[in-house]
Amino acid sequence: MSLIVVGSVAYDGVETPHGKVDRMLGGAATYIALAAGYFTKVGIVAVVGDDFAQEDLDLLAGRGFDLSGLERVPGGKTFFWAGKYSPDMNDRETLRTDLNVFADFNPKLPEAYRSEPYLFLGNIQPELQRHVRSQMAQVRLTGGDTMNYWIMDFRPQLLATLKEWDFLLINDSEARQLSGEYNLRRAASAILEMGPHTLIIKRGEYGAILCRRDRHFIAPGYLLDRVFDPTGAGDCFAGGFIGYLAGRGVSANHDGIDFAELRRAVIYGSVMGSFCCESFGVDRFRTLTREEIEARYREFQACTEF
Amino acid sequence: MSLIVVGSVAYDGVETPHGKVDRMLGGAATYIALAAGYFTKVGIVAVVGDDFAQEDLDLLAGRGFDLSGLERVPGGKTFFWAGKYSPDMNDRETLRTDLNVFADFNPKLPEAYRSEPYLFLGNIQPELQRHVRSQMAQVRLTGGDTMNYWIMDFRPQLLATLKEWDFLLINDSEARQLSGEYNLRRAASAILEMGPHTLIIKRGEYGAILCRRDRHFIAPGYLLDRVFDPTGAGDCFAGGFIGYLAGRGVSANHDGIDFAELRRAVIYGSVMGSFCCESFGVDRFRTLTREEIEARYREFQACTEF
User: Fold this and answer.
1) What is the pLDDT of residues A226-266, one digit of tens each?
2) Distance from first CA to last CA of chain B, Å, rounded?
3) Pick from A97, A99, A246, B237: most CB atoms within 10 A?
4) Across the interface, which of B209, B225, B267 has its CB nearest the CB of A183?
5) Could you read off the pLDDT of B148-165 as tens digits, one per residue?
6) Residue A41's CB: how many other CB atoms inside 10 A?
7) How far is A283 from chain B (nearest CA, A)?
């Protein structure tokens, strides 16, 4: 095992112009782990209720994930989120958020996880993220995600947490909120003063930007000819990104992470995000192969080289 | 001389978060010609009033542009547009549009222009675009721009015009409107059935997509650390694109235009659009050098290679 993923495992109800599913496996940790699992071994830290279905457990276990950190709360209900996308799928309306057992999520790191080298902290309360990080003394690369709520209402805690991360992976609006700068280059400069030596700004269908103090890399988004359901695409980007780095055994040195590897990690992130959009929920990952991933990586290269 | 540019020469009033200018040189043909002029000789077809200032004429003449197609209407007033940008500069509100002499613009092609090989038709009534095209029997490459108004209210005329073009260069919302498809790959497929063998879809700060039936190229936008005034950036993209192709003497064969040259033309388009945003109106082009253009092209390459 190699990468520890902390975050939500949930059920989602999703409606897009292409259809509607009332309840299906979702959650950030689920998507991150499924995407990363093509590149590296994964251990999950999350919480579910006893309504969590055996078939969903089987899907995760079938990928070889270590589920000893997946806590099951007797009598509890799994986090449920429901949303509806706009016709162009660039906006979505949240119809329901039942935190259930996720409201009191206090990540418990199994002893065996503590010596693992890679850690991705999904979007949870920053102090919980920090507590997990503090238990992993030998970690080689730590990074994660956050969201507007923590940026606005838990800023001191978030800033203390970020100081110990190698990379932060957030979307453009979060980068603007965290930095107070609209321009993304200025936003990146401000955020890189907060601790992480590497920042990845996700821009949805428009791709992503990778920033370090001394250089940056701009990746356009892969052009799909049909977006079926964008739920989880950003988390799959994260999974592809950290999964690739973990699979390659990459470490940070005084310059940060090798930039050529980082660039490739961003493209693998985009590739995994693009696959995610091709079916409802996690469905695309039921059949996706590593060969398809490599083929899309090469296609990405062919469509962007000049 | 080599490239004929047809379109508006105007005065603009612009307010951005960085300042306000009540009246300055603007217009699509102005921006296209200024950007293209770094790569090729340019002849302009446009109309102004007798309020058009000598210093603005001098700027254009100083670039070596052929102005024999720049009609001056005695007693007429030059097209005036005023707009105000939102704080993030992704939206703008039109405060005033006085078409003035542009309302009756009927492009008159000087005899000497008719044998030129490159033609860019800026956004004017499609039948006028078609009429200009019909007078250039030896043209090697023809393309242009259009807008929502012609797409909605002059569709048959626009479709007849497009049939004779090699390339169409529009923004993403226009591509969606013209094709009736939201997804840009599907929109591109539909538009490529209308006549042009090459389609360039501009996506503002997010870059551009180049589409042919058999392949496509995705270019991200250059990341500026300050956008001073985005007015004219799309037209400068067009000028860089067609200017580069004209300067290289590129022709279309049965496969369309050489794809490697097209990709480079798109990057030069992005480069010219990025410079445009660095100052108010056309100001950046008063000092910009070809060396700066080449340096930014190389920087673009360094920031996107993986």
Assistant:
1) 999 999 999 999 999 999 999 999 998 777 899 999 999 99
2) 39
3) B237
4) B225
5) 999 999 999 999 999 999
6) 18
7) 21
Instruction: Determine the pLDDT at residue B169.
Output: 98
Residue A203 contacts B where some CB pair is shorter than 8 Å: yes
Interchain CB contact of B259 with A (< 8 Å): no
Q: Which residues of B touch A305 (CB under 8 A)?
A: 263, 305
Contact A260 B219 (CB under 8 A): no
Place of tokens 């603005």: B56
Question: Which secondary-structure segment (H or E) carries A118?
Answer: strand A118-121
Residue B122 has pLDDT above 90, yes or no: yes
CA dihedral A52, A55, A59, A62 (to 10 degrees): 120
Q: Which residues of A touch B298 (CB under 8 A)?
A: none
Q: What is the pTM of this model?
A: 0.96
Distance in angstroms (rounded) separating the CA atoms of residues B140 and B118: 6
Q: Best of B192, B209, B218 to disrupt the A interface by mutation (most A CBs within 10 Å)? A: B218
- ipTM for the predicted complex comes to 0.94
Contact B182 A88 (CB under 8 A): yes
Residues 85-104 of chain A whose Cβ lies under 8 A from any Cβ of chain B? 87-88
pLDDT tens digits along A99-110: 999 999 999 999
Torsion angle (degrees, nearest 10) of CA A257, A258, A263, A265: -60
Residue type, A251: S
Q: Which residue's structure tokens are 């016709």? A: A87
pLDDT of residue A166: 97
B267 touches chain A (CB under 8 A): yes
Give the largest Cα separation in chain B, rounded: 57
Residues on chain B touching A278 (C-beta within 8 angstroms): none
Q: Are residues B185 and A303, on separate chains, in Cβ contact within 8 Å? A: no
Burial B168-192 (b: 16+ CB within 10 A, else e): bbbbbebbbbbbebbbbeebbbebb
Question: Taking a C-beta distance cutoff of 8 angstroms, is the pair B40, B241 a contact?
Answer: no
Among B183, B226, B267, whose Cβ lies nearest the Cβ of A306? B267
Q: Is the dihedral of CA A58, A63, A66, A72 positive or negative?
A: negative
Residue B185 tokens, joined: 């790959």
Average pLDDT over residues B214-235: 95
Instruction: Give the tens place of pLDDT for each residue, B21-34.
Output: 999 999 999 999 99
pLDDT tier, A1 (very low <50, low <70, confident <90, very high otherwise) = low
Cα distance between residue A57 and residue B245, in whole Å: 57
DSSP per-residue codes, B258-282: -HHHHHHHHHHHHHHHHHHTTSSTT
Distance from CA of A15 to the nearest CA of B (A): 18
Nearest-CA distance B203 → chain A (Å):
9
Q: What is the distance between the alpha carbons of residues A274 and A288, in angstroms, rounded to a whole number?
A: 12
Considering only CB atoms, B216 lies closest to which of A260, A303, A306, namely A303
